[in-house]
Design a protein that fits this description.
Layout: H1 3-16, E1 23-28, E2 34-40, H2 43-48, H3 59-67, E3 70-75, H4 79-93, E4 109-112, E5 120-123, E6 132-134, H5 140-153, H6 165-169, H7 177-180, H8 194-209, H9 212-228, H10 232-252, E7 262-270, E8 273-282, E9 285-295, H11 302-317, E10 323-325, E11 338-340, H12 345-372, H13 374-389, E12 397-406, E13 409-419, E14 422-423, E15 429-432, H14 441-458, E16 466-470, H15 473-486, E17 494-498, E18 503-505, H16 520-552, H17 561-571, H18 574-578, H19 582-589, H20 591-601
Parallel strand pairs: 7-10, 10-11, 12-16, 16-17
Antiparallel strand pairs: 1-2, 1-3, 4-5, 4-6, 7-8, 8-9, 12-13, 13-14, 13-15, 17-18
């Protein structure tokens, strides 16, 4: 039996013996390497769905199935157990086809060491020695602010010496400079008892857990006790600590509900995955926030990627809140965490902030990609425009038209061309309106479209993938009629953009499309529209200037445009020419022309 037949026989036997219970499945390749890990409420139904020769499977999934040589299963009691086990397997095997978040080893933690006199310090390495770790802290600014707060509130030791109570009693240590500048309570010299120092560490743990309300309450009680015993200096010190705590919580507090403990998740779509943003809120204060790019190796729905990313991130970050706030119901086990869709004002505010952070992270990624790989970014942008405008193919070649006139005078139009989402100035074209009299935007639009595309058809040149008209439904209707006359309607998609509300109109549809103002698709369409407007206005201005020039000097018999330009270059203005002696003008253009010019200017 050859290897292919052996493989098929092995998989067929596995498929026949699949249980119907919840569990985790692993797909292995010919080298016995785990290439995919998945969870299922019903293992039989889920695993068999890969092997039904269903054409609805994506090409990437079909490629995965071809590489499967063996299947291993682990049966568990519940969906939640399956979810946690799946995450552990993904972290252990790092399968090629699974979603895998960035490893959390690079994030710093705050460690409270397991010693008789604990230290508090930041580290990127977790050691299983009984120490307590808080974090991780993806946001460096939040971490620094938290460290500054703890340093100002509590005089804990920074030194690394191994300290014991026995050696403190034997006076084996000497206090360092930190005691003098009052940032350490000097337990090494017995300036505080072991129990008093432990209380300092306990309060620091409270701050790191986010128990600001309880810490503030204890400080207020201490302040009142000192005031009652007339120890006003100590009361003032406590008051200053309370003010520090108030300042910090004012910065991090994002909802008025000081009992709210939740994790908030949102995402923005990108090509091949999502940008995930996550926030941890403790007692109404933002404790942690991070954004991560999540890539999918299979063509999974964004909702599935989002769900998997949440479960992996919660495990990495060791977040265990009972409440998660998301914008849509996710296929998570009921006993995993309660889902809230941000229905009340405070939770909606958190969800909006999380979504805003995800969008910011997406924009930042796009900027970096644009700088590092402009061609790839252009490809992504064009495909995004295709998706947002529901076009039959990516608009690599776009053309936009705009009319320009002032009270019907000097009517001109402009056509600008964008290729791969960028301007192509060499292909811009100006049009002087020839057949229309007076201010008639509709007939002007009809003329320039007819001239542009009848010429492209005659010369058998490339037609655009998308035509954009600067205007509303009226201009679009005229443009459609023109394309119908040329036999091009239906071959080239056409839209118009109305400037007042930035609405996009389609032929035959009375209702406009309103894209998100932050959308890169809308911004590109606005760019091409603004470029057409700028190009048209520039031509219109130049034409007006040229006509004004002709009315002053070229009205003189015998003075042509070339002579007029020569005069203005030398004498700068008509006014200066009027004040110039005849003899000087004669030196420039000769006696005959100078006499005619001088007589005209002084008549």
């Amino acid at each position: 039996m050859d290897s292919q037949a052996s493989k098929e026989n092995n998989i067929e036997m596995r498929l026949k013996s699949l249980p119907t219970s919840a569990g985790v499945y692993r797909f292995l390749d010919k080298d016995n390497t785990v290439i995919y890990v998945g969870k299922a409420k019903n293992l039989r139904n889920r695993v068999q769905s890969y092997f039904k020769n269903d054409l609805s499977l994506s090409p990437k999934t079909r490629l995965l199935v071809k590489k499967i040589h063996d299947i291993k299963l682990v049966v568990v009691e519940s969906e939640t157990e399956a979810l946690l086990l799946e995450n552990n397997f993904i972290k252990q095997y790092k399968p090629r086809y699974n979603i895998l978040l960035k490893d959390d080893k690079t994030y710093p933690w705050i460690c409270v060491s397991n010693e008789e006199y604990p230290r508090v310090f930041t580290t990127r390495k977790k050691v299983r020695d009984g120490s307590i770790y808080f974090g991780p802290y993806p946001n460096g600014k939040l971490l620094k602010e938290l460290q500054d707060l703890i340093s100002k509130l509590y005089p804990y030791r920074r030194c690394k010496i191994p300290m014991s109570e026995e050696n403190v009693f034997k006076n084996k240590y000497r206090a360092c400079l930190n005691k003098q500048i009052k940032i350490c309570s000097a337990p090494c010299e017995g300036c505080v008892t072991k129990e008093e120092y432990r209380k300092i560490i306990s309060d620091i743990k409270g701050i790191l857990r986010g128990d600001f309300y309880q810490i503030k309450k204890e400080l207020k009680n201490q302040m009142m006790d000192f005031a009652k015993t007339l120890e006003f200096e100590k009361a003032q010190e406590i008051k200053e600590k309370i003010q520090l705590l108030d300042t910090y919580t004012a910065k991090t507090s994002i909802v008025g509900n000081t009992t709210l403990n939740a994790e908030v998740f949102a995402y923005e779509e990108i090509e091949g995955g999502i940008i995930l943003n996550a926030m941890k809120v403790v007692n109404g204060c933002l404790i942690s926030s991070l954004s991560q790019e999540v890539k999918s190796h299979l063509e999974e729905e964004k909702k599935e990627i989002f769900t998997t990313a949440i479960t992996q991130l919660r495990e990495q970050m060791e977040w265990k809140s009972d409440l998660i706030i998301v914008s849509e119901q996710l296929p998570l086990p009921e006993d995993y965490a309660k889902q809230d869709l941000g229905e009340n004002a405070e939770k909606k505010k958190l969800l909006d902030l999380c979504q805003k952070n995800a969008l910011f992270a997406k924009s930042d990624k796009i900027k970096r990609d644009t700088l590092l790989n402009p061609e790839r970014w252009s490809e992504t942008l064009v495909k995004q425009i295709q998706q947002d405008l529901n076009l039959p193919k990516p608009p690599y070649h776009m053309e936009c038209f705009d009319n320009s006139n002032i009270q019907g005078c000097n009517a001109v139009a402009a056509c600008v061309v964008f290729r791969n989402g960028k301007p192509s100035p060499k292909e811009y074209r100006h049009f002087n309106i020839k057949t229309v009299e007076g201010p008639n935007d509709y007939d002007s639009m009809r003329e320039i479209l007819h001239r542009r595309y009848s010429r492209l058809l005659k010369e058998e040149k490339e037609l655009p993938d998308l035509i954009i008209i600067d205007g509303g439904k009226g201009q679009l209707a005229v443009a459609v009629e023109t394309l119908e006359e040329l036999g091009l309607y239906g071959q080239i998609p056409i839209i118009s953009i109305a400037e007042r509300l930035e609405e996009i109109y389609y032929p035959g549809n009375p209702y406009p499309l309103c894209l998100d103002k932050r959308s890169h698709s809308l911004q590109t369409i606005q760019h091409i529209r603004d470029e057409a407007h700028r190009f048209g206005i520039t031509h219109h201005r130049n034409k007006r200037s040229k006509e004004t020039f002709h009315t002053v000097l070229t009205q003189i018999p015998g003075i042509g445009e070339k002579t007029a330009i020569e005069l203005l270059l030398k004498f700068k203005s008509v006014k200066q020419l009027t004040e110039t002696p005849l003899t000087e003008i004669e030196k420039c253009i000769g006696k005959a022309k100078a006499a005619k010019l001088y007589a005209f200017l002084h008549k």
